[in-house]
Design goal:
The chain is of the alpha/beta class. It contains four helices and ten strands. The strands form two sheets. The protein has a seven-stranded mixed sheet, sandwiched between helices. It has a three-stranded antiparallel sheet with strand order 2-10-9. The model has no long low-confidence stretch (mean pLDDT 93). Bound molecules: guanosine-5'-monophosphate. Guanosine-5'-monophosphate is lined by residues 67, 99-100, 105, 129-137, 182-184, 188-190.
């Protein structure tokens, strides 16, 4: 059975003014959907679930840049704790995937840094990604990994959007299931802004207009 996800209801948003938000993003956000502290708590449990499922096998963790950089760092830290009695080390690898402009998927998925994938041949890989929406990005990455000769894959997602997938992809470990809203923060961007924001937030119409490409 898949581990329990933390489900965020459709209308759940906390007031931006109740949180410490960098001044550069004043007026750009309309609500906090997941505060950073909650992400950290949830990632701790997710790491335990991953360890319970995968056990002490040697694993390679693949960070899908740029969106998952914060989630990846937190997960590696918690997994290191969860695997403290494990004789096999974890390894970390990085790849960059790009598909969005403004709030829209361009439909074209660019995978950059493919030469890194050679190092994953024959290994068991935990793919760590920020969010699954249509499912296209993750599906393309997983098929590329299998073509490269990766032996086994699992997926760990910070967020899974409550929308019908265009492509079905395995979502093995999901921190939060969220409503169908465009969100930013904790690594996720809008035209490269907001990745540094700690909390996961919804943008205001003014913010969308300000940073439109
Ligand atoms: P998919 O291919 O599943 O439609 O989308 C996956 C990618 O689209 C993610 O890795 C992310 O870069 C981007 N994406 C999808 N939904 C959102 C969102 O709500 N906010 C942001 N910032 N990016 C998103």
């Amino acid at each position: 059975m898949a581990p329990t996800r933390a489900v965020i209801p459709d209308d759940f948003e906390l007031p931006v003014d109740a949180f410490d938000i960098p001044i550069c993003y004043d007026g750009d956000l309309s609500g906090v959907v997941i505060p950073e502290g909650l992400v950290r708590d949830r990632v701790r449990r997710l790491a335990k679930d991953i360890h319970a499922e995968i056990g002490n096998k040697p694993i390679a963790l693949l960070c899908v840049l740029k969106g998952s950089y914060k989630f990846f760092t937190a997960l590696v830290e918690e997994l290191t704790n969860a695997r403290s009695s494990c004789p096999e080390p974890m390894t970390v690898d990085f790849i960059r995937v790009k598909s969005y402009e403004d709030q829209m998927s361009t439909g074209q998925i660019q995978i950059m840094g493919l030469s890194n994938l050679d190092e994953l041949k024959g290994k068991s890989v935990l793919v760590v990604d920020d969010i699954s929406d249509t499912g296209r990005t993750l599906a393309k990455l997983l098929s590329t990994l299998h073509e490269t000769g990766v032996e086994k894959t699992w997926t760990a997602l910070l967020l899974s959007k409550r929308v019908k997938r265009v492509v079905d992809v395995p979502e093995d470990f999901v921190a939060f299931e969220i409503p169908d809203k465009f969100i930013v923060g904790y690594g996720l961007d809008y035209n490269q802004k907001f990745r540094d924001l700690g909390h996961i937030c919804v943008m205001s119409p003014a913010g969308i207009e300000k940073y439109k490409s």
